[in-house]
């Protein structure tokens, strides 16, 4: 699963161990998304995601798990990017689409639909007809990690995919919504390297934190919004309510120039 064989296209073979070189050469998002799915750069994550796909949860025993790295989801001209943490073992690692098939995704997509950024409030599979409007969802780590805890080295191995994704989105990108402290720590260095200088010391994460980063290349400013992660730990305890999430997404839409409900 996900292993390239002799004679396969070189674009598929190279990312197995060297995502940095391969991501940088991707000419567009469709190519990048395909390349992501073949990455095997982190042995621990490869073993875990494939073991989960083999054993499966009882409720999904009859389903065929995706069991590979998960690409971003959303249009190539997105003005808003939502950055999470990593695929859930029995969510995106099962369905192959970010935040699809788990309770965190239920909360996120319901809020996106409520404010007019998604075509429907539920996400159950890659072929359920869901569309995002002006919005793309991605993560700094593309494989499901044990206990939802990727290591710093795994995060760094994966950084090239996010860096190239943001670079390709740059012509239209206005707002980055970061879900949780891990994503915040991962995305700020990527933005800085991409030409949006981040202040030093780097601003601390918090719900509702709003950074405005001027483009060093003379382009548009980028708005970065912090949001508590849509994990069950936050949503079940009321730390993050649907109203809080919807308000923040409406603000993201306003900053991006998208009419929200």
Automatic annotation (TrEMBL):
UniProt-listed Gene3D superfamilies: Uracil-DNA glycosylase-like domain
Entry-linked SUPFAM superfamilies: Uracil-DNA glycosylase-like
Residue ranges of domain Uracil-DNA glycosylase-like in the record: 71-249
UniProt-listed GO biological process terms: base-excision repair
Family in the record: Belongs to the uracil-DNA glycosylase (UDG) superfamily. Type 5 (UDGb) family.
Keyword set, alphabetical order: 4Fe-4S, DNA damage, DNA repair, Hydrolase, Iron, Iron-sulfur, Metal-binding
SMART domains in alphabetical order: UDG, UreE_C
Leader sequence segment: none
The name this protein goes by in its record: Type-5 uracil-DNA glycosylase
An example Gene Ontology molecular-function term: uracil DNA N-glycosylase activity
Organism: Longimycelium tulufanense
Pfam (any one): UDG
